[in-house]
Design goal:
single chain; alpha+beta; Ribosomal Protein S8, Chain: A, domain 1; 2 domains; 6-stranded antiparallel β-sheet; 4 helices; about 45% helix
């Protein structure tokens, strides 16, 4: 179970709703302060409205694409391996469980493209994306992000078992 604990859980809907709720709350506070204090509260109101606008823009630019890419709930793992090796290990884990595996390579301008690995009969899939390639004293270090995405991924026992097997097979790196 220690390997499964290396996966980071994200409730992407809750994060987005939190930012949008905070933005609307601060905006209402700014408009309310302007209405109650009049011209004396204008500087305070403008400051609150600027903060609310920043939060709204942040949510729209950064969190909305994350929600579209990772859906409502997801698990994330960072492996210190090239994407080809991670892809082979993920496919191997799914095939060992008796599933027919399909891999789709996504269009990208990057040299190493992200991949979607899905298995027949499962309501979730794995997104493999190269994160970085750094040169060091021992040669280049490859990092690949593995994101488990899909319906009820946080409550599915098969999804948890696959996460544990993948983490056990891949050398992991920190974020």
């Amino acid at each position: 179970m220690a390997d499964a604990e290396r996966w980071d859980f994200a409730d992407n809907v809750r994060i987005l709703v939190g930012f949008l709720g905070a933005s609307v709350g601060i905006e209402l506070l700014g408009v309310g302060s302007l209405a109650t204090m009049g011209p004396d509260g204008a500087l305070f109101a403008v400051t609150l409205l600027a903060l609310a606008t920043f939060l709204l823009t942040f949510a729209a630019i950064l969190l909305l694409p994350r929600l579209l890419r990772r859906r409502g709930r997801s698990f994330r793992l960072l492996a210190v391996q090239p994407i080809e090796r991670v892809d082979a290990e993920v496919r191997s884990v799914l095939e060992d469980r008796g599933h027919a595996v399909a891999v789709r390579v996504l269009n990208s301008r990057r040299r190493e493209r992200a991949r979607i690995v899905s298995a027949e009969g499962l309501a979730w899939w794995l997104r493999l994306e190269p994160v970085s390639r750094r040169s060091g004293g021992e040669g280049p270090t490859y990092r690949t992000e593995v994101v488990q995405v899909g319906a009820r991924v946080d409550r599915d026992e098969a999804a948890a078992a696959v996460r544990e097997r993948i983490a056990a097979r891949l050398p992991l790196g920190g974020a």
